[in-house]
Design brief:
It contains 6 helices and no strands. With 118 residues, it is mostly helical. Helix 2 packs across helix 6. InterPro entries: ACP-like_sf, PKS_PP-bd, PP-bd_ACP.
């Protein structure tokens, strides 16, 4: 198995506000596509193949160490808090992308609510 390459996440917009500005569905699609590529590389899946979006990551070969590393990198890259790495292994790629798409939008909503109160 290849080592998880956090630089693959750098293909995401460097400024998370770019992702926040997108529709949730579009944001989830972008995240799912990039996560699929990143996990494919980490798991040694040939580029011509895709990571199935509907199978738990555990079934695809994501072990506890890889899940923990992925969690840490996602939190840094997207400025979010994700699920525990054990729960991350049980999620599908589609579920993880949808969760992250929602979480990426939260800081913007909190900042907007704070500005409205002032």
């Amino acid at each position: 198995m290849a080592v998880f390459d956090p630089s693959a996440l750098l293909a995401l917009p460097h400024d998370v506000s770019v992702l926040r500005a997108l529709d949730t569905g579009v944001r989830a699609q972008i995240l799912q596509r990039q996560l699929g590529r990143t996990l494919g590389h980490a798991l040694g899946v040939p580029p011509a193949h895709r990571i199935p979006a509907d199978r738990p990551l555990r079934v695809l070969g994501v072990d506890s160490l890889l899940a923990l590393h992925l969690k840490q990198q996602l939190e840094r890259a997207l400025e979010v808090r994700t699920v525990a790495h054990e729960q991350l292994r049980e999620a599908t790629l589609a579920q993880l992308a949808a969760l992250l798409a929602e979480e990426v939008a939260r800081p913007q909503a909190a900042a907007a609510a704070g500005a409205a109160v002032r």
